[in-house]
Each structure stands twice: as C-alpha cells, then as structure tokens.
Amino acid sequence: MKTPLENSTDGWNQECRAKLTDRTYSPLNRLKNYFNDKITYFLEHGLSCECALPKMALETSQLNEVMRGAIKYSFDSMASVLAQTIREAQVADEINCKDDADMLANMINSALQGIIIRVQIDQSIVPLEQFVALIFTNILQEKSPS
C-alpha cells in the first residue's frame, strides 16, 4: 500500500514518465522535452513554486523511515525511466556518452533537485537553463545532426 506522499508524487512522476516514453519522439527529443517542460513549468507557475520533494527530503527523510522510503521510491522511480530513455538515446547513437545509464540518471536526477532549489533561491530560471545546457553538451554529449 502506498503512502500519501507516494500517491501525491506519483501524479508528477506519471506525467514525466509519459513524456520520457512517448515514442512519437526520438529518445534525445524525449529527454529535451522532459527538461524543457521543467523550464516551462517554472516560467508558467512562478520561480518560487513549491517543489515538495526536495524540501521534504531535506526536512523529513531522517525523521521517519516511512517518509524516507516514500521519498526514495519517488527518486528511484523517476531515475529508472530517465535511465531507460538515456539507454535508448545511446542505442540510437544520438549521444556520445556511453557511461552507465543508471548512474547517469541517478546523478542527473539528484543534481536536478539541487538546481530546483537554486532556481527558487535565486528567483531566476538561469540555473536550470545552464544545467540543461550542461547535461546535453557535456554530460550526455549530444551528437550534432549529420
């Protein structure tokens, strides 16, 4: 049985999962859509919108084992679908990075949580835009169209 936190984060995870698994787009374009949607979300909802997961992770993960498990479930669920899309981009030869997709997804997902906090602190979308550029240019190493 899922906790209320798992249920509340499932909606967001399902929306992200739908974007990352939409086969009408190439794996690389699905990844780009995923990150561009994050930028659009902040621009449409305000830079100080509440992003509960990173805040709850900081505040409660050590206080309650059930809460820690629910937060971990949400992080792991999102990283799993992100890893699958990265693997597909590697197989499709859309990115140069051949590092382990699970490791990349966990690193990107964790860094994204920190960037979201930074966007709220700075009240600027620039940290997220810089992060996305870094992901595609330096981490995943997007290939130039031939």
Reconstruct the topology from this structure:
Layout: H1 4-20, H2 27-45, H3 52-60, H4 65-91, H5 101-122, H6 126-139
Helix pairs in contact: 1-4, 2-4, 2-6, 3-4, 4-5, 5-6
Q: Per DSSP, what share of the residues sits in E-state strands of 2 or more residues?
A: under 5%
Helix and strand content put the structural class at mainly alpha
Q: Enumerate the spans where pLDDT stays under 50 for 5 or more consecutive residues.
A: none
Helix content: over 70%
Question: Largest sheet, described in full?
Answer: none
Chain-averaged pLDDT: 84
Overall strand count: 0
Q: Radius of gyration, Cα only, in angstroms?
A: 15 Å
The sequence of SSEs as H and E is HHHHHH
Number of helices: 6
How many angstroms separate the termini? 49 Å
Oligomer: single chain
Q: Which term fits the overall shape?
A: globular
Care to describe what's here?
The structure is a single chain. With 146 residues, the chain is an all-alpha fold. The protein is globular and about 50 Å long. Helix content is 74%, strand content 0%. It is built from 6 helices and no strands. The longest helix has 27 residues, at 65-91. Helix 2 (27-45) crosses helix 4 (65-91) and helix 4 (65-91) packs across helix 5. The chain starts with a helix and ends in a 7-residue tail after the last helix.
Quick tags:
6 helices
Concise synopsis of the structure shown:
The protein has helices at residues 4-20, 27-45, 52-60, 65-91, 101-122, 126-139. It has 146 residues and is mostly helical.
